[in-house]
Amino acid sequence: MALWTGVALTLPMSAQASVSFEGETIEWIIPFSPGGGSDTWARFNAPFLQKYLPGNPTVVVVNEPGGGSTKGANLYAARAKPDGLQLLGTSGSTQFPYLLNDPRVRYDYQDWKVVMASPTGGVVYTTPATGVTAPEEIGKLADQKLTYASQGATSLDLVPLLAFEAMGLDARHVFGFQGRSDGRIAFERGEVNIDYQTSSAYISNVQPLVEAGQAVPLFSWGALDEDGVLVRDPTFPDLPHFGEAYETLTGQPAEGPEFDAYFAFFAAGFPAQKLVVVPSETPDEIVTAYEAAFEAMKADPEYQSAKEAVLGTYEQVTGPQAQTLFERGTTIAPELRDQVVEMLAGEYGVRLGE
After folding, report:
1. Distances in Å between the alpha carbon of 175 and those of 91, 150, 178?
2. Torsion of CA 173, 179, 182, 186, to 10 degrees
3. Which of 40, 168, 266, 303 has the smallest count of CB within 10 Å of its CB?
4. What per-residue confidence (pLDDT) applies to 354?
5. Residues in Cβ contact with 208 at an 8 Å cutoff, skipping those fewer than 6 apart
6. pTM of the prediction?
7. Distant-in-sequence, close-in-space partners of 77: CB < 8 Å, separation ≥ 6
8. Chain-centre distance for alpha carbon 307
9. What is the torsion angle, in degrees rounded to the nearest 10, for the CA atoms of residue 109, residue 262, residue 350 and residue 155?
């Protein structure tokens, strides 16, 4: 009980007791640098969360970048108390090292409860210097040397790595970038010639480049329908999804072991891309207060009018739906994990544990 400081001290014994965060400051930890998709997502949501949490606390976004997000997640696992005063926003870049048993990971998703989950998408784009002017011209990349700014082979950038590998593109992945925003900046400087951004960052930061003729969208990762079939992303209905781009580039249907490996990590990383978690010992009353605040936030007319322009059409969910996405984003078939680990070691010299 000594851990239940601040908010928890206001809780009566009844499970129906009200929770108040009045006078408190809540830290929303984002383990990425400012300006990327996760940062954009959290900063858009934070004022509305502040508005609807009981007691109207101050909600601040705190960036803890490093290690492809493992640094910030490790710090959260070590420091966060079950009092509702710290949230962690994770993404596929946090989930993938966990799925791959990366030794840098000192956190366990089973030690956390999910309070909100946010599916998202992403768009791959290139520079007009490649000669590509439209998505249907992706074949022009087949014989070109491409450079991609990556946060690391076990981060969310594993999805483009597996995608480019399956497509047979000659892409050099430069590891060590702190966040996707850093990759975009490298693209704008002409240091790399292919990049991707999650939907919120693409809408905010890349669409202006497209409109200025400085970037050319190639394809979205796509979305999953109710049957788990890959379909076009509803936020980018005019762009082909990865499977369509694959067929345009290779002339073959999107299938086989390399596509299966890509699809497994895509499914873990994007339909369940962003999760808001608290320590598993957090009292149910606090979890319920957060879920209710997120639901009220989504119904806010101001939120509804601004959301699509910033985050796209994806529906943020709580309760059983969030739990389903949580489970999907933190589990993977062992054989597909082994396939990817062996590929990373054999082709990229990435050996987990060394």
Report:
1. 18, 5, 9
2. 10
3. 168
4. 53
5. none
6. 0.77
7. 106, 107, 108, 111
8. 17
9. -40
